[in-house]
Amino acid sequence: MTDRLQSHAAFNALQLAAQTRWNEMWEGNRLIVSVGVDSSSEPKGALRVLAACRQALAGTDAIVREVSGNGAMWMEPTVEIKRPGEPPVVYGWIGPDDVPALLAGALQDRAVGVRGADAFGEIPPLGEHPFFKHQQRIVMEDFGVIEPDSIEDAIARGAYNGLIKVLFEMTAEEAIAEVTASGLRGRGGAGFPAGIKWESGRKARARPKFVAVNSHEGEPNVYKDRRIHEGDPHKILEGMLIASIVCGAERAYNYIGGEYPLAIKRFRKAVVDAERLGLIGPNILGSGKDVEIRVRTGGGAYICGEGSALMYSVMGVRGQPRTKPPRSVEEGLWKRPTILNNTETFANVPAIINRGGEWFSQIGTPTSAGTKMMTVQGPLKHVGLVETPMGIPMRILIDEVWGGMRDGHQFRGVQTGGVSAGPLTEEHLDYAVDFDSMTEIGGMLGSGGFVVFDQHVCPVDFARYLTAFNRVESCSKCVPCHRGNPALVEILDRIRLGGGSREDLSLMERTSKHIIDLSLCGLGQVAPMPLLGMMKMYPQDFLDHIDNHLCAAGACPVSATATLATAAD
Amino acid sequence: MEDVAPTIAGPDPEPSPERYSDNNLENEIDLEEVRKILSHFHYRDFQEAQELILSALQEINEHFGWVSFDAAEVVAAHFGTTATRVYGLLTFYADFRTEPRGRHFMLLCHGMACYVMGSQRLVENLEDVWGIADGGTTADGELTVQVVNGCLGVCDRAPICKLDADFFGDLTPEKLNVAIRGTIAGRGSWRDAHHPVPAGSNHDR
Ligand SMILES: Cc1cc2nc3c(=O)[nH]c(=O)nc-3n(C[C@H](O)[C@H](O)[C@H](O)COP(=O)(O)O)c2cc1C
Ligand code: SF4
Ligand code: FES
Fold it and tell me: What pTM value is reported for the model?
């Protein structure tokens, strides 16, 4: 399989061969051991678990596979074992030293579930575990199932079927109509309808045109986009190719955060393999369509996730946003029309093309269709990456999916929207998690990262942390953001140190309004939102710091002052 | 399973004694080696040249631990641009260093999971006990720290740091200090974590 495939029929033949090989592997009589290796399990020793499995099984006919994790981070490293005549069973908490016992059939207490519909003896299906029960996986469908480095695995599971459809069976208009009908909205934060963007991209007259994937993920609260690259890079690649073909773009870029070496490595491997098979490059499968793929990496500046800044970064200059219009679909990379979407947005497209926009629009809520990948941080029992239908109540996510608070930690709130929105407290937990529901109380879906915090976190200090993030990451191009955020941090520090006054509260509100109204780009325009949200949800904590020099969480130096003051009295 | 720190990542470093022989900071970058790295970055046109500057800088930064002004000039010459433009990139993007790294390199995660689990105290501890803030190097050249504003992606073990090739999770200031002392006493260096971003130009992707 080294030659570029020249036709639709040649692809079908390859797919059939891949499927046959896949089925024979799973129905055969060989032991199959799949180790989940990704950026969250590798630090816990997953590569050494993999090496231990390879060593233990060397010389046997067992198959040892390097898959990615399935999102259940707290139980990593995970290993899936399929013995002849038995279903595949996932085991958690497997260190390198546990491998011999695991392979010998011991460690049944670490069996988490069966990958499949039915229980196996005592072991229930994985889907009954509270972490998986509420999930519906479109993007993450094959996480932990395929070897991300194997294009044959991906093709056996249906990868590139959507590409085939837009190459040979659908017109560009029909494909875009499916994306529009699906109701797919951008997964990068703003939630702009993808179909409308693609339609403008297709209609743009300037040539050449480009497609760009925003895989920058510089926010301090998410880890989902890198994990799509690590778990199923072909979904992204197929989405990019489909977008390029239906919008008439000749080149597609994927801009990946430079901090994610494994994501970059696996995506590059996917590109090389797809190129080898003729799914990328000139005259794809003899269709007459050409698409070039380029991978570019970021340098650790959060602002480069903003659309125009990302494009400057790709073009090798400092990533500083520019005023809009013109929008990127009119004037983007190299001043040409550029269709930019988030990684997860692209990764949803193959399923939409294959199964239809109508199918997708039935999932989730009427205004937020589909599923959303969500990550959680904080003192919860089941920290991990999930994909659930839009509209799931926050309470179910926290209490069931993520297992509730760890012992000794009391729920205080959940920060939403990363550094761009405010928190929800106990009384708001019945709000639905989708694009629109939480905005009325100052929350936001954003990129789907939620941060649960407990009694040890002080809302004033947290507000300072979030504002300081925006201060550091401001690109310094425009004055309201460049000067305003340091001013907010200064006032917050005054309050934290016990020198604040009640006027400071209204001063912060006024300053925030200036920053929001006058900043040039999305960073400045929302930078004060976390602070305003904290002030709204936890007014008493701010007043305690100012009036009583009291920090209930014991996080701010104000408490030290209070002790000193009492001692002096 | 609670107390798994240190959890060690990646393949074990291959022992190569000469790599650890010098305790001093490397204050010079071998420009011949820079040229060798750059020779992998072919470009066919102006656009591609611009697009590859950042990738080339990343590879040099990973290889030497930093990018000197002299190296920036060589990069500028290779891509037909000015040294000030290249230096402007080095100072804008947080991943680049314009000063040498110490023998050991720590990424201290200060993302939101780590923050709500107490990374602020770790940052303060570094200043109090080791006298270094974000980007700083201890006076003896043993340790450089970079505080990461993003997320290292291991939030279930927050707060967490990566010291050379090893990750240490569920940290407290005390555990962090133990980890640092252990690392300094060991034979490793930041090069063990060398995790090259496979860059190169588009052709050899
Ligand atoms: C400061 C800032 C940072 C951003 N960071 C990201 C990011 O890391 N990833 C992302 O996909 N979108 C990010 N965005 C949103 C992008 O500007 C853009 O809206 C998005 O990539 C469009 O794709 P979508 O419609 O599929 O969401 C950021 C926006 C701002 C203002
Ligand atoms: S709002 Fe902030 S980040 Fe955006 S352009 Fe202005 S200074 Fe830069
Ligand atoms: S925030 Fe530190 S690992 Fe995620």
Answer: 0.94
